[in-house]
Write a structure and sequence with these properties.
Blueprint (H helix, E strand, L loop, with lengths): L1 H24 L22 E7 L2 E10 L2 E10 L5 E7 L7 E8 L2 E10 L4 E10 L4 E2 L3 E7 L5 E8 L2 E7 L2 E4 L6 E6 L13 E7 L5 E8 L4
Length: 224
């Protein structure tokens, strides 16, 4: 009896599989005359590429390095037709800057970058908003500055005024669940030479959707 039940189960499973295959391959094929080929896109040879959807547009952010200078190419596409709408190139970022993150906050797109002010030993974090409709950047805004060096993860090598150095991803970005707040976190480098005296100092800063400061604090971890 048990063998008969198992055999019936296998038969039912096999039948269901045949029906599924038949449904997949019996779908109506799209007539060849209805297939349309769109206009070709401009090919951008970039170091990094990021794609973001915003309303009814697709925004591409492509970072390139040519002739000793970084530049960004912004492209916008219609998300329904996939037709390219605008393309613009920007090379007005400061020399020796380091990109820290591209963040989407409440359907607005921001690019954060840092500068090291050697004369005052300061890390400076800046932001520029991307106007998706006009495919352009806003003016730079200083978010905050931190005295002293910051730690981070090695992400390769960059050329700076101090020579070729290890680049570090120094800031972490966290968007709130309702997309209205942004938390930026950083960690300061140790000051003391002795490991027994070195304790992590974590910085936390919260901003609204306009990247205006709301709250901040530095927390010293109470153990080594």
């Amino acid at each position: 009896m048990t063998k008969l039940i198992n055999l019936m189960k296998k038969a039912a499973l096999f039948t269901a599989l045949l029906i599924s295959i038949n449904l997949v391959f019996s779908q109506e094929k799209l007539p060849f005359e209805k297939i349309q080929i769109g206009e070709p896109y401009t090919v951008i040879d970039a170091l990094t590429k990021k794609y973001i959807t915003s309303k009814e547009k697709i925004l591409t952010i492509k970072r390139s390095y040519t002739r000793g200078k970084y530049s960004y190419t912004l492209q916008t596409f219609n998300s329904n037709t996939l037709a390219q709408e605008k393309i613009n190139v920007f090379d007005d970022f400061p020399k020796w800057y380091q990109e820290e993150g591209i963040i989407k906050l409440n359907d607005r797109v921001f690019i954060f970058y840092s500068l090291w002010e050697k004369s005052n030993s300061k890390n400076q974090l800046f932001v520029r908003e991307i106007d998706v409709e006009n495919c352009s950047f806003s003016a730079a805004k200083l978010v905050f500055e931190i005295k002293g060096r910051l730690t981070g993860e090695d992400i390769g090598f960059v050329l700076t005024e101090e020579g070729t150095v290890n680049a570090r991803d120094k800031f972490d970005f966290y968007v709130s669940n309702n997309n209205s707040k942004l938390l930026i976190q950083y960690k300061k480098m140790y000051d003391a030479e002795s490991d027994s005296k070195n304790k992590d100092l974590i910085g936390l800063k919260v901003f609204d959707e306009n990247i205006d400061f709301l709250w901040g604090k530095e927390i010293k971890i109470p153990f080594v």
